[in-house]
Amino acid sequence: MTTTNIWRVKKADDDQLREKLAEAAGQLKEGGLIAFPTETVYGLGADARNTAAVERIFTAKGRPSDNPLIVHIAYREQLDELVLPYPPLAAALMDRFWPGPLTIVLPVRAGVLSPLVTAGLSTVGIRMPDHRTALALLAEAGCPIAAPSANRSGRPSPTLAEHVLDDLDGRIDGVVDDGPTGVGLESTVIELVGEHSIRILRPGGVTLEELQQAAPATTIDNGSAEEPEMAPRSPGMKYTHYAPQGELELVQGDSEAVVAYIREQAGAARERGEITGVLAFEERLMRYEADSVLSLGSETELDAAAHLLYAALRDFDVAGAQRIWAEGCSGDGIGAALMNRLAKAAGNRIICV
Ligand code: TXA
Ligand code: MG
After folding, report:
1. How far is the CA of 118 from the centre of ligand 2 (A)?
2. What residue spans of 33-141 are helical by DSSP H?
3. What pLDDT was estimated at residue 235?
4. pTM for the whole thing?
5. What is the mean pLDDT of residues 124-138?
């Protein structure tokens, strides 16, 4: 067991913030594991050049070693040391979306990062988070910081410091608590295809529509569905993720049919004595009967739904839900990321009614 420090910075003034982050950054520089907030979810940081430190990330999370980590930077100047020269499109994307929830996969410079960070790939995913506390911590640490989401592997990503502690208390050196994160879902991971197009490996905080404005030929990679024997381009996408402990089913289709299906299924499960949960939009919330009926807000405000999703999945665990049904939503804008995470939470149990 390690003692996990908590630095609460939510109401800190500038001096207090500097003092607390100096302590946290000091531990990062010495090979410590420090969780910190970003605009997407909390990350679990370690010095990306230090193999012993990075190894501790994999152990603390229980993460498979073939799943590479995203490297976080505070300044563009840090980038040239880490990656090989990149095409103008990459620079344009950085100008437009950094700091922000966009991870760009680029060819890595040999020998700079711990080989565990890239999991043996010739590329590395880099991002600059749009979060005052994260940027201040990264700048103070002064080194590239590898940071996956700060959850136990397979659990929903943390959007509060409490979620980090629920999963990792006693396994990491500290957490910087700055309250809830913004977007609530992880960054969009992309790679460049040639000089002018983009492939989305994981939908996230920056939407397809926004990327298409920068590069009209942007496409979404739907994993290895067509070529199951091929390794997925983004190794993380092959694992069941974000899953609550109960069995979740994602139900899509005409809203009346969705309501009818979920009511029938949940009713039957309750009769069998199972603890049930429904994750629904405000518009139809009152129509469900289950042990926990949780709201994602209005289906016309999917940004707010993204913000609520992971906490709701964790709440089902607290309630002990054994069977859960989730309503689907539009796949436009942030809806693409929301539906992607719901499908993963469902382990691809997707019902079209
Ligand atoms: O918003 C985020 O991205 C959060 C915060 C903490 O920054 N981080 C995060 O990290 O979600 P993680 O480790 O949970 O997810 C990283 C994803 C995985 O799906 C991984 O396979 C993919 O990025 N990835 C990392 N490096 C890659 C690479 N070189 N090529 C392809 N995919 C990569
Ligand atoms: Mg993760």
Report:
1. 15
2. 51-61, 79-82, 88-97, 115-118, 132-141
3. 66
4. 0.95
5. 97
pLDDT tens profile 209-226? 999 999 999 999 876 444
Provide the CATH number for the domain formed by 247-352 in this structure: 3.40.50.11030
CA atoms within 13 A on the CB side of 305: 29
CATH architecture of 5-222: Alpha-Beta Complex (3.90)
Q: What value does the mean pLDDT of the chain take?
A: 94
Tell me the β-bridge partners of 46: 146
pLDDT digit string, tens, across residues 233-265: 666 666 666 788 999 999 999 999 999 999 999
Q: Give the contacts of 322 (CB within 8 A, at least 6 positions apart).
A: 246, 247, 269, 274, 275, 276
Burial class of residue 318, CB neighbours in 10 A (0-12, 13-18, 19+):
exposed
Pocket of ligand 1 (CB under 6 A): 38, 40-41, 43, 67-70, 101, 103, 105, 118, 121, 123-125, 147-149, 186-187, 189, 201-202, 233-237
Closest listed residue to residue 41, CA positions, set 12, 72, 13: 72
- Taking CA atoms, 219 is separated from 80, 145, 208, in Å, by 27, 29, 8
Paired with 277 in beta bridges are 292, 324
